[in-house]
Please model this.
Amino acid sequence: MTGTPTIYLPRPERQRPIGEWFIAQATYKDTEGHARPHVLAFIRAPGQSFKLAVAAPMHWGRRMPRARFDADGHITDMDTLAAGAVAQEYLNFWNDEKKAGGSGYRLAKDSYSRKAFPAVRKGAYLAFDGHGSIFGFRTADGGSFYLFGMVNDPKHVYQVLSEALLVPQGSRTIQELGADWFS
Model:
């Protein structure tokens, strides 16, 4: 890791019953020595240590959106209904279902997932069963940032696809800021 990470912390009373969580943006050097921003979510069950829940490197040229903070410096809550719809749209897309836009949202035309789909889908046996917890916050301009991982059927090649997404205020288009595959 290089530099100091930025931490995005929700209000304590807004934490989930399953445990406390936070988002961090940190920069790591890749194998060629290039600095690469990553966004990570950590969660812990009551009485346990924090564990990495989701990690996504930012796509080249993409940046974390500015968060909206409350008066005490905590991130403001994401729209949980929209978060579920956005995650569903990614499930629909990667599972190659003909429900594109069925959630009320759609992937941006220049999305990295759209570009990668033909190559990745061929022979990868993708069939995401669902997604994990969704972490996120409202952005300074009124949009929403979401971070989650989609979980694949265990018999398939890729087990998890992490996604870092932005939905600008007033938009129904999902912009992909970062993503990564894990086996």
DSSP finds two helices and ten strands in the chain.
